Amino acid sequence: MRKKVLLIGDFGIDDSIALIYCILNPEIELVGVVASYGNTPRLFSIRNASFLLTLGRVQVPLIVGPERPLNGTQPNFALDFHGPYGLGPINPPRISYPLFPFNKIFDIIRRFPGEVHIISVSPGTALALTYTLSREQIITQVPSINIMGGAYLVPGNITPIAEFNFWSDPVAANNTMNQGGNIQNIPLNVTGKALVNQSLIQLITAKNTNPFTPIIGAILSYFLAANLKASPGIQGTPVHDLLAVLALVHPNLFTFVHRKVQVISDQGPAFGQSIADFRLGSNKTAKKRFPSIAVDINVKEFRKEFIRILTSPLRK
Questions:
Q1: pTM for the full model?
Q2: Which DSSP string corresponds to 210-233?
Q3: Cα distance between the two ends of the chain
Q4: Alpha helices (runs of H) in the chain, residue ranges in sequence order
Q5: What single-letter DSSP state applies at residue 285?
Q6: Which UniProt keywords apply (predicted)?
């Protein structure tokens, strides 16, 4: 049975790869997309999602997400990595794709009670608002929530210790990570291992099996160059957000541990840091209380799946 997915993204490069994966994967039924701020301003996030959904011939509700963090401050965008419009070298056309207000999320959940899996690969603002507006509905009717964010005992990617999504809205991240045990958290601990190099990009683009192929090649090459500039010597580019989707359909590729999480929102050098208790014996508390954190990934199988889906033909 195909898994119904509501994808919350800030549609820069890796979010766009995650969306393309959802569109091409026969195991996934995309039932809605929320476009938020983050890697790029909300306007471009909406434009990029509209472009990709249209290219994939997919008609699902495209929901307008938040444009700034919960505290109302001006967001910081990752344009150095994702380009001026969020899709690397691509300036997508303005497409008249139907947009829906934020409360459409709850209509989707009510329409498919117990079936909608939420995947959040943007700053946690949209997910935190969803909990605030209807916590009981989320807890009782959503079987799983996958969150890309955090860095536990590994370097951050926006500060020495903080990951970008959690750092962008640490109040929201802390709120969502303490909502129960149906949360899977995909941090830099695993996304930093699943790297895509130029050879892998060329392998995918050479097949040219779907309308996304030229876009995949262009944006991943741009992302690889940006990551090489930021981290000279890196063996490839991470595709962080894709792994949150992969963990839903292929959880066996990951090693998870249940731990309590705290995200620091106090101003200072620890701002945005994610902390989990990895001491021996700290996992004895009931699993229902804490999220499961991915701490390892089968990189070989990741690469096989990456190639398999991104070279698949467009579904009819």
A1: 0.97
A2: STTHHHHHHHHHHHHHHHHHHSTT
A3: 17
A4: 13-24, 42-55, 79-82, 104-111, 125-141, 164-168, 170-176, 188-191, 198-207, 213-230, 240-249, 299-310
A5: S
A6: Glycosidase, Hydrolase
| CA–CA gap between residue 29 and residue 183 (Å, rounded) | 20
Q: Compute the distance between CA of residue 203 and CA of residue 256 in angstroms, rounded to an integer.
A: 30
Residues shown for the chain: 316
**Is 108 in contact with 6 (CB distance < 8 Å)?**
yes
Q: Does residue 20 surpass a pLDDT of 90?
A: yes
Minimum mean pLDDT range among 24-28, 140-144, 212-216, 280-284: 280-284
Per DSSP, the three-state class of 185 is strand
Domains of the chain from N-terminus onward: 3-310 (3.90.245.10)
Which token pair is 132? Answer: 């605030």
User: Can you read off the two tokens belonging to residue 96?
Assistant: 């008249």
User: 287 pLDDT band (50/70/90 cuts)?
Assistant: low
In terms of Cβ atoms closer than 10 Å to its own Cβ (0-12, 13-18, 19+), residue 100 is middle
CA distances from 2 to 5, 26, 249 (A): 9, 7, 9
3-class DSSP state for residue 204? helix
Determine the average pLDDT of the residues in 77-106.
97
SS3 165: helix
Which residues lie closer than 8 Å to 38 by C-beta, 6 or more apart? 9, 10, 12, 15, 45, 75, 77, 78, 122, 123, 164, 165, 168
